[in-house]
User: Fold these one by one.
Assistant:
Number 1:
Amino acid sequence: MQASPRGALAAGARLSYAEFAMRARTDKRSRSGEPGDSKAGGLSRIGVAIDSDLLEKFDRLIRHRGYTNRSEAFRDLIRAELVEQAADAPDSPVVGTVTLVYDHNVRLLNEKLVDLQHEHYDHILSTLHIHLDHDHCLEVLVLRGASRTVRQIADILIATKGVKIGRLTITAAGAMP
């Protein structure tokens, strides 16, 4: 096998796996300065040992969700965990949705919910109100602020007497990983 001065292979030459692995390690060092250093913005390859049954289930899951490869699914899982961790810090900026289902016949419930929303107008960006049936309403509120504040507002809304179902979904509002 012949290589040019820059390390490129001559036409038709083949690498053994060991030669390929050595070249990949050498290329990575020359691109980023350190082995495994991803600060240069390039992709890094990793190896993952995983139980075969678990891998089969994971493959079915990602196919069902429309992923074309495992790499993108792993990246999304990692990003989701990093975003969740960032949103857990009490002072971190977050955005969230509060979803409420309630019986609008409960005495003064509509007024209580509207009053609470006005008390926190500086954190509530938008609301959506839907009539589910004759008695039940769905309300979705979009909130923005420090994680602690958004969670407190959501807790107050969800705990309001007459709210049957309440859920907060939260994510970091800053730069995404």
Note: The domain at 93-172 is CATH 3.30.70.1150 (Alpha-Beta Plaits).
Number 2:
Amino acid sequence: MPNIIHYSPEALQDLDDIYDYILIEKQNPIGAQNTVIGIKKSIADLKTLDNIGVRVFLPNGMETPYRFIQYNNYLSFYRSSGKDVYIDRIMYDKRDYINILFGNKR
């Protein structure tokens, strides 16, 4: 039985923001569409492949519940529990993802 993918509201907003940035700022509608489709396809791999991607560690070396998978310059951060896979955020790889994911909690 395949895993079930759940997108957080933030992750869905991230996809919209990525699309809008490439469409408006880069003026590349085909690139915007292809990028979002590629990100979604990479996430769809999580339906059948458990625990792929890179583990996320805090700067102090402490392990977090997150892993990420990459599509081009975009990272999709997820955590899993049984057959449920939660996509929490999707962001450009140069962003400060530790601060975005954990803020002052680290």
Note: The beta strands are 4-7, 54-57, 63-71, 74-81, 84-92.
